[in-house]
Specification:
The complex is a heterotrimer of chains A (about 375), B (about 325) and C (about 575). Chain A has a domain of about 250 residues. Helices cover about 70% and strands about 5% of the residues of chain A. Chain A contains 16 helices and 4 strands. In chain A, α5 packs across α15, α6 packs parallel to α8 and α10 runs antiparallel to α13. The longest helix of chain A is centred in the last third of the chain and has 27 residues. With about 325 residues, chain B is mainly α. Chain B has a single domain, classed as Orthogonal Bundle (ABC transporter involved in vitamin B12 uptake, BtuC). Chain B is built from 12 helices and no strands. In chain B, α1 packs across α9, α2 packs across α9 and α10 packs antiparallel against α12. Chain B starts with a helix and ends in a 20-residue tail after the last helix. Chain C is of the alpha/beta class and about 575 residues long. Chain C folds into 4 domains: about 230 residues, Rossmann fold; about 170 residues, Rossmann fold; about 50 residues, no CATH class; about 70 residues, no CATH class. Chain C has 20 helices and 22 strands. In chain C, α8 crosses α19 and α15 crosses α16. The chains are: A mainly alpha (about 375), B mainly alpha (about 325), C alpha/beta (about 575). At the A-B interface, β1, α8, α14 and α16 of A face α3, α4, α9 and α12 of B.
Amino acid sequence: MEATKDRVKEPLMWITKRDGMNPVFIWLIRVLAFVCGMLACGLIAFALIEQLRDEPSRITEFYKCFIDGVVKNDDMKWTFAKDVAILLCISVALTPAFRMRFWNTGAEGQTLVGVLAAVGVNFYLGEPYARSHVADARLLAPMLVAALLAGALWALIPALFKAKWNTNETLFTLMMNYVAIHLVSFCLAEWVPNGSNTISINDDMPTLFNGLAAVAKKNHKYSNYLTIILTVLAVTVLIYIYIKYTKHGYELNVVGESLRTAQYVGIKVKKVIIRTMLLSGMLCGLAGFLIGGVLDCTVNTESVGGQGFTGIMVAWLASFNPLIMILTSAIITFLNHGASQISTAFDISGALPNVMIGVVLFFVIGSEFFINYKLNFRKHAREVRA
Amino acid sequence: MTAFFAFFKTYLLDYFVDSLAFGATFMYGSTGETLTEKAGHLNLGIPGIMCMGGAGGCLVLSFIGASGLPPFLIVILGILGAFAMGVLMGLIYSFLTVTLRANQNVTGLALTTFGVGLMKVIMSNKKLMVAQNYLIIPKEYFRFPFASRQDSLQRLGVMFFLAVIITIAASYFLYRTKTGLNLRAVGENPATADSAGINVSRYKYLATCIGSGISGLGGLYYIVDYMASNEAYLSIEAYGWLSIALVIFVLWRPHLTIIGSFLFSVLLSCSSFIATIPGVTPSMSAKPLMRMLPYVFTIIVLILSSIRNKRENQPPSSLGLSYFREER
Amino acid sequence: MPTPALELKNITKRFGHKVVANKNVSLTLNHGEVLAILGENGCGKTTLMNMVAGIYYPDDGRIFINGHEAVIRSPRDAFEHGIGMIHQHFKLVDIFTAAENVVLGVHAGKKDNLKDVNSRVSEIAAKYGFSIDPKKKIYDMSVSEKQTVEIIKVLYRGADILILDEPTAVLTLQEIKRLFEILRRMAADGKSIIIITHKLNEVMEVSDRVTVMRKGENVGVVNTAETSEAELTNMMVGRQISLNIKRSEPVDPKPRIIVEHLDYTNPEGVKILKDVSFTARGGEMLGIAGIAGSGQREMLECIAGLIRPQTGTITFINPKENKPVTFFHKKISQVRRLAAQGKFHYPDGTRVSLKGMSRKSVRKLVRDEQILFDENEIMPLRDKTPLEIRELGVKLSFVPEDRLGMGLVGSIGIADNMMLRSYRKGRGVFVNRSKPKKLGQTLIKKLGIITPSIRTPVRRLSGGNVQKVLVGREISSSPKVLMAAYPVRGLDINSSYLIYNLLDEQKCTGTAVIFVGEDLDVLMGLCDRIMVINSGRITGTVDARTADKETLGYLMTKTQGDKADGSN
């Protein structure tokens, strides 16, 4: 009798790995997860916001408000596009490193030193009066170079140690973020002794391509936004091409896939690690230049505002495909702007966007499981031997 | 010599005791993170968890603070509230990374985003926290048994000693008990642990959730005890990241966090301390430099340990990797 | 009749639909005896024992322990029935001490404290005569010490039935002797022991009875005292089968790769290759026979430049000039470097200095052979990376054992895998995908690779198709040396024959083919010469056309003169 009881061999449910799910289903699952996340956001808002509970009918207003946060007026649309672009730039910057399975968690710092370098060049080399007012247009090129170099340097340090001694890159790059943040505080203390903790040199910044303003005739005042958007789009496409069609891109994919295969075909792994991280850091530096050179020409410890971390999630959500990142960074920015709008409209903390982003991410992250694994259910108990 | 003692007594003693007290924040954070990492999970959600722990504790305090319950009960309930909220956050993390085998870095970052945001929403919510009444409990309640003292010792209270006890207990648990051994095996080599009959998922869940609960206490401690200010919650996130640094700095050994956290807080408050000495004015830029040092030291430790490559000083081997027993 | 300690009745295990690993196997293990399970690689010995240890669950059949039917679904169940298995790959946590590994996962109501474990481990060790320091870390241990830890781990859990999977594969002779003494002592103590092996002399030495397995079936049980090595060999290999594999006559066999006195010790400190010397000839297929793990893989990886042997030379003979490779002008920087060392001379004998010359003129000098590399300066392949070997112009192809972990990238398609070796070709920063794509399509057609599309990640293809992709790519570069490690492992009959034919075709084009195989019938039907490697040493080379299985089996399993090994 005991033996019969033990004869039940298959568990009720077990998990197996799955590979090669139909892309349509993959995206269906992701969209479903996103929708569930948005519904959960509604529930949280319902719990938090008095007015919604008083008049449950206004829950639709909640979602309307969300969308309003992005498309209400031109200003909002342009700001939205600009924010997408900056986030996209950072995510794209991370892509080569992630493709190589180098877990660069240091985008925040790499971008921030980019901002710092750009602003610093203007501070030291600009006209004395410009230091406090306007950035010198002639300095844009040196600012760009400085930002690129600074970002590259910040990424190079962990890469060198990874290549030489296999120092854990996730933790190293993470720590570099805070070194960067305090470096910014230090520079601010040096540059602005009065202690305003921010340096602002900008009223009306020249843009890289003033000519582009003509293209956007109507939106003249957003010409620097346009500069950013077009630059980032170009970079995104270039990185897509780099990863997909160049020898370098091919090498870093092989290194990421299997170190042994890379050695087998004679790829110099250390060289690839260093080269790829230089590129990754440089692109973060570019994002820093866009923030500190084109947009505001100001720097403080919040200049990047956590986008270096958000960028990691954006890149991951897009499965490290730069073109899909356009979509995912737009979604994250949409959540951010929409929730900001809600926090204003319903008079609630400005931190609400983070909550909403977190909730939606939980759902999307969790849904990945159903793409990579398969749940098997027992169909019938196996025959019991007589 | 006498001059030194006088100097020590007047300035340094206060500074050191204060640093000890400050350090308890990181002690909680990094002991919790160590437990999680020993199970093979790099939880970058610790800042969010510490924030939410703080929020959970404050919620309890604001509800029962004025209820007239005996002070020790209020304190205990507050601590439990923080712990429970930490566990809840840990549950989210472990469900996603253990059961659903999601990418740990991404999940952790999402958890931090979520936790920091939700804490700010809660802490600034007028209804929930009318006039920040979580501070209605005077910090003296937490300063048992030294609350009535006039010297610097009065900064150390139950929550400080709890941090020290938890830290030492965690160390004992990890290195002296079989359960701790099993846990470390899970983080080192889950396949081996599995074949030795250890329930890998259960260990991962428990380590993550209890670790998160402990981290959560750090947030509460900082808000209501160490700072006892209604703006304190804004800086917890930064100390969460510092706690993760501390785990590396002490090479995953909880008992060393007592020294490590002291060292970190000495550096963090160094410039404020210098400013208290008459006749010395530190430059504005000294402060950020000193605050940078904990991270720089952590990086140096990380580099040195990877160069020396001593096996005991490495991160747990399976840190960051999901475990899945293949059907063979 | 006393009840046996363990009895298996009609055990059957299938993997997938086609592969039957065990078919109706029954066996008994008595109390206090050492039973050897003897068989070639892949005959199902380990699978059978894994079912007793709770790693697999049998599809059919029953297991009795001390006369009671037992259901063993996990290693834990096995422990509870007093069964412990020591696997070939040790399952130990590196940074723990011996004692810590021993108590791992053991609860059983004991105090949750590590203090008394060390003494208990020493106790067990003393009882059976192990020498072990319970406080020593695993990463500081030799293979033999690690094995000891595994055995103590099993004993600590109170196992009465011990299963050892190929326990001697990694041990030195002395260590083997010591192990056998311990096994006997344990048997005398009433423990029942199963030892899985393919080494005849060990079977004769240690066991009481032998169960011989072949192709997943039990082919007989004999008492060790009543049998001979010859009888066991015959039972193990079965009768010779003619496989009808196409074998062409060697084409103008001339030395192509000369390996001399190769010694390799792996990072764990185990001596894998011992004084290996051989010559592979162009237009000939050299088969390499040996028990798995005797050093075949390392030998090929040394030649391919993936690992570095400590001593020895590897020389490649340039087929065009029929002399050792000296220098191929691939890279100008290399020319300059060697010229600076004074390795080049003009036809009149004066040394060449390239200082101040432009790239273009250097290239012209080299191309027109106006400067010559020193005749006697042979470029050995040893210590060269795969890339450097290619730069020397050595066309060497290698089909590694680990297809998806090494030879191919699983997540990309056939076309992209085609260019793994050739992607550097051509100038410019972009990879040229048109040629690899064309090559991929050709291969799909020629080798009948079944794939949804040329872009489908190769890891989704079946084993046979994956291997066709890999072999196809390696052959496509028209190599002068082709090394293939277990190229038909896990393949169905048709795919296997296709691979055999491809290798034979390569031989006919004058390539030196080195074929590492496990099936002796295949080796004897396909190759021209068969070299036998046994524990890292070459024990003989025979003509494949006249060889017989007994000789090969003997060369593969015999214990060599203990001069070199016995001393350590």
